[in-house]
Amino acid sequence: MINLKPNTQNPKPLILSGLEPLIITPESNFVNVGERTNVTGSKRFARLILEEKYDEALEVALDQVRGGAQILDINMDEGMLDGKAAMVKFLHLIASEPEIARIPIMIDSSKWEIIEAGLQCIQGKGVVNSISLKEGKEIFIEQASKVKRYGAAVIVMAFDENGQADSYDRRVEICRRSYNILVDKVGFPPEDIIFDPNIFPVATGIEEHNNNALDFFNGTKWIKENLQGTKVSGGVSNVSFSFRGNNVVREAMHSAFLYHAIKSGMDMGIVNAGMIEVYDEIPKDLLQRVEDVLLNRREDATERLLQFADGVKGKGIEKKEDLAWRNASVEERLSHALVKGIVDFIDEDIEEARLTYASPLKVIEKPLMDGMNVVGDLFGSGKMFLPQVVKSARVMKKSVAYLTPYLEEEKAAGSKKGKILLATVKGDVHDIGKNIVGVVMACNNFDIVDLGVMVPAEKIIEVAKEIDADIIGLSGLITPSLDEMVNVAEEMTRQDLDIPLLIGGATTSRIHTAVKIATKYDHAVIHVLDASKSVGVSTNLLSSKSQDFTLQVKDEYKALAHSHALKTEAKNYISYEAAKQNPFEIDWSVHKSIKPRKLGVTVFENYNLTEIREFIDWTPFFSTWMLKGKYPGILENETVGEEAKKLFHDAQSMLDEIINNKSIQANAVVGLFAAKANGDDVKVFSGDGKELAQFHFLRQQGKKAGVLPNISLADFLNPNATDYLGTFAVTAGKGMEILVEKYKDDHDDYKEIMVKSLADRLAEAFAELMHQKVRKELWGYDQSEKLRNDDLIKERYRGIRPAPGYPACPDHTEKGLLFELLEAKKNTSIKLTETYAMHPAASVSGFYLSHPESKYFGLGKIGKDQVEDYAQRKNMTLEEVEKWLAPNLNY
To answer: Of the candidates 169, 139, 61, which has an alpha carbon nearest to the alpha carbon of residue 105?
Structure first.
C-alpha cells in the first residue's frame, strides 16, 4: 500500500498503533501493508491455518514485519475454516510476540462477526477493512459505533443497498451519506475514516465503463473538498484489468492514473510498486492514448489504445525467433527442445539421432535421457515450473512415439531409474494430481505405469507383480479413498508384498498415513505432499540408502502416531446431548423465511459455456499447476509471472476452442423444496406437503470456549415453521473424456492436464453461477444483489452451499439421497461411484441454505454417542457409519 501526498491543507494525521505508534501524515511517503497473513491471498498461510500450524503461521507474520510491513493485514475468510475462531486464536498468539505486536493490525473480513471478534483481541489502534451501507443504515451505524467504541480506524466502501458506486453521482451520494452518518450520528473522527470509492477497469469495450477513471478522480476530489479530514484509498491495479499480460500499457496506465488521482487528493493506493512507470518517462504517444482513456477525452479512445497496445505488445515479442540453436549438435538441439518444450523440429532431429546412434534404444538412453535429466535438475532447483515440465514431457513422448516402430524388440527398461505403478483407488475418479506426479517422475527418468482411476486393490497388486513394480503410488481426492488406501495396504500385507507404498491426494495427510496406513503394512509407507517431493522420495527408496531411509521414516511416523494419540486423549469433547443443548441460536421472529419463486426441480441442459466462463476463479487453476499466487497478481509475480502468463494464455486459447467446438457440455439440476428442521435432520416436502426425503446432518462435539455454539447445518433451518432448502448438482465434464483420449493418443500430457483442470474450473464456476441464479431468480431471496466476480469468490453473498463430503457435512452417502431427489443421473448425466464420487470428475453437488446467519464450519471430531444416534437415524449399521466417518471419529 503506497501512501501518496494528498492535495489538501493540513489534514489531521491518521494515527494507528500496535505497541508502537504509526502516524500517517501528508509527508508519509510509504505505508506498507503486509498482506501475506491473508488466507485468500497466501496459499501457504491458508494451509498452515487450516492445518492448525499456528506457530509456523506466526513465522509468516514475523517475516512480513521484518520485511518492512508497517501494518499487518489479517484475513481468515476461508469457506472451510471457522474464521472467527481462527482470527481470535491468531491474534492472541500475535499479542505474545512483541516484534509483531508493535505494528498496527488491519482486521480484514467480509463477515462482521469475524471483524468484531478481531477488534476484541487487538491491542493499540487498528484498522477495520471494511464496512459499508450494503446491508442498510441501521447495520452500518451499529458496526461503525462498535468500531468507534473499539477505537479503530475504518475503511468505508462506496457501497449501499443498491450496489457499488459506479458513477460520480453514486460515489458522491454514498460517500456523503456515509460521512454524515459516521460524523453526525456516530460521532466518528473524520481523520479515522478512509473512503474506498471503487476503482473500476477502463477500456473494456463497454460504453458505460468509459467514465470509470474520471468518475473516480472527480469523486476523490469531491470527497477531499467536502468531507474534510477523511482519507481516500483504492486498488489501483483494477484500472488496467483489460490489459492483462501487457506490462508496458499497464505500467503507463497505473502511473498516469496515480498522477491524476494524487492531484485529485488520493492518499493511499494498493498497487504493485514494480508496475509503476515514471510519469515523465512514459512515451508521449502512449501517454496521450492512456490519458484519452482515463479522462474519456474522445469517443474512439478505447479503440486507439487497443490498437496501440497491440503494437507495443507486438514490439515486445516481435524479435525474430532465434533459431541459432538449430546450428548446434543434434544432442544439444534435443536438449534445447526438451527444456523449452519445442515440438516443431522433433521428428527431423530424432530421425537424425536415430541415424547417428547404433540403435533407437541408444537415442532414448543418451540424448533424450540426458535432456530430461537437465529438465529434472532445473525443476528440482526451482528454475523450471510445472507447466514447462509438462511441455517437456510432451516432447519426450513425441520422440519416443517416433522411435517406437524402430524399437521392435528393444526395451528401454534398462535406462530407467525404476518402475513406478500409479493408480487412483477404487471408487475415486480424480486424477489430475496423479497425472502431474507421473509427468514429473517420467521427466526424472522413472518408468511410469498409470492404471487410471477407480482401480481395485486386487488389480493394483496383480499388475504390480506382473510388471515387477519397484514402487506403488496411490492417489485419491474424496475421503472414502482414505479407507480404500488402508484396504490396499492390508491386502499387500496379506499377499506378503514388500514394495514401497507412496500415498498422495488432496484428502491425504502425513498424520493419516502414519496413524491409519503405515500401521497396516510393515514395509515403507510414505506420504508425498506433491509432485516435486515424489522424485526425492522415490530416488531414496531405490538407492543404496533405501533401508536407512525407510527406517528413518518409520521412526518419524511412529512418533507422529504417538503424538496424535496423546493429543486425541487431551482434547475435550462434550456429550451429544450436551452439544444439542448448545446450538447456533437464531431469533426466528426476526427472519422470515422466503418462499422460492419456483419450487421443485429445474433442469439446465447444455448451458452457455461463455456465460459460465465469466464466473471462473483462476487462483486454484494456477495452484493445480503448482504456481503459487493469487490471480490476477500472479501474472505480475517476479518469480512465476512470465510462466503464469503463458499458462493463462494457453488456458484462454483452449477455452476458446472448447466453446467454439462445443466439445464440453455443461448440465445442471436445481431443486428447491419446503423444509423443516427435525433435530439434526431436515425433512423436505413437495408442494402438496408430501414428505420427499430426510437429510441427516452432524453436530460439533468439541468443547467450546465461552458462548461459542456447537453447530449443525440443521440449525440454519426453522424447526417450528415451514422453511426452505435448496439442492443442486452441476457438471462441466460431459464430453471431456473424448478430449482427454484425443490428447493421450497425441502423447500430449500438457493439453490432457489442461483440459481436466479447465473442466474443474468450469464446474466450480457453474456452481457459482447457479447459486447466483438461485439467489436472484429461482428462489429470489436476494433479488437486488449486485456483486462482481471477486465478491462472489470471497462469498460476500447471503447464504451458503455446503456439499456432502466437506467439513460441515463430511458423510458422502448423503449424496445418494440428494441425487435420488434431483434425479441427477437422468437430468445431468452425473453418475455416483460405489464410494459416492461423482463421474465426470468435473462435477459439484450440494445444498443451498438461505438464512443470513448461515455459515461454513468444520465438524471436527465427534463421539460414539452421536455416531450411534446417526446410524439409527440413517438406518445403517454402526460399522457402516464408522467406515464413512472414520476421519471424524474421536475414538
So the answer is: 61
Closest CA to 255 of 282, 218, 223: 282
CB 275 within 8 A of CB 231: no
Average pLDDT over residues 198-212: 88
Task: Indicate if the pLDDT at residue 559 is higher than 50.
Answer: yes
DSSP strands (E only) in 458-518? 471-475, 501-504
Which pLDDT score is estimated for 491?
Answer: 94
pLDDT in tens, 327-385: 999 999 999 998 888 888 999 999 999 999 888 878 887 898 888 888 877 766 556 66
- The reply to whether the predicted model has a pTM over 0.70 is no
Q: Which residue has the cell 496411490?
A: 474
The per-residue pLDDT for 5 is 39
Q: How far is CA 839 from the centre of its chain?
A: 22
Element (H, E) at 734: strand 723-734
Show the cell assigned to 412. Answer: 528401454
Say what the pLDDT of residue 30 is. Answer: 44
Give how far Cα 324 sits from Cα of 333, 336, 396, Å: 10, 11, 22
In 3D, which of 138, 173, 142, 143 has the Cα closest to residue 155? 143
Instruction: State the pLDDT at residue 272.
Output: 42
Active-site annotation holder among 392, 399, 475, 481: 481
Residue 623 is among the residues annotated as catalytic for this protein = no
Distance CA(811)–CA(805), nearest Å, equals 5
Please enumerate, as own/partner, the contacts of 626-635 that have beta carbons within 8 Å and a separation of 24 or more.
626/385, 626/386, 626/436, 626/530, 626/531, 626/532, 627/385, 627/386, 627/387, 628/43, 628/44, 629/43, 630/40, 630/41, 630/42, 632/237, 632/241, 632/244, 633/41, 633/237, 633/272, 635/244, 635/245
Contact 31, 268 (CB under 8 A): yes
Q: Strands of 71-75's sheet, edge to edge?
A: 33-34, 71-75, 105-108, 127-131, 153-157, 193-196, 231-232
Q: Is 737 exposed, middle or buried (0-12, 13-18, 19+ CB in 10 A)?
A: middle
For residue range 691-733, what is the model confidence (pLDDT) as tens digits? 999 999 999 998 887 778 999 999 999 998 999 999 999 999 9
126-130, 134-138, 627-631: least confident range? 627-631
Q: Which residues have CB under 8 Å from 69's CB, separation 6+?
A: 32, 33, 34, 103
Inter-axis angle of helices 212-226 and 247-264, to 10 degrees? 30
- pLDDT tier for residue 274 given thresholds of 50, 70 and 90: very low
Q: What are phi and psi of 707, to 5 degrees?
A: -100, 15
Residue 736 identity: M
According to DSSP, the β-strands at 525-527 and 600-604 are unpaired
Say whether 430 is catalytic. yes
| Residue 715: active-site member | no
Rounded-to-integer distance, Cα 808 and Cα 625, Å: 28
Residue that is written with C-alpha cell 493394483 in the block: 460
Whether 273 shows a pLDDT value over 50: the answer reads no
Q: ∠474-480-483 over CA atoms, to 5°?
A: 65
pLDDT for the residue numbered 314: 40
Residue 686 DSSP label = -
Task: Return the sign of the alpha-carbon dihedral for residues 828, 424, 874, 716.
Answer: negative
User: What is the DSSP pairing of strand 21-24 with strand 14-17?
Assistant: antiparallel
Q: Cβ distance 846 to 439 under 8 Å? A: no
Among residues 430, 512, 696, 839, which one is catalytic? 430
Catalytic one of 73, 160, 192, 428: 428
* Grid cell at residue 618: 483462476
Contact 99, 62 (CB under 8 A): yes
The length of the chain, given as a count of residues:
891
> What grid cell was written down for 628?
503459487
Cell 481523520 sits on residue: 191
Report pLDDT digits (tens) over 140-157: 999 999 999 999 999 999
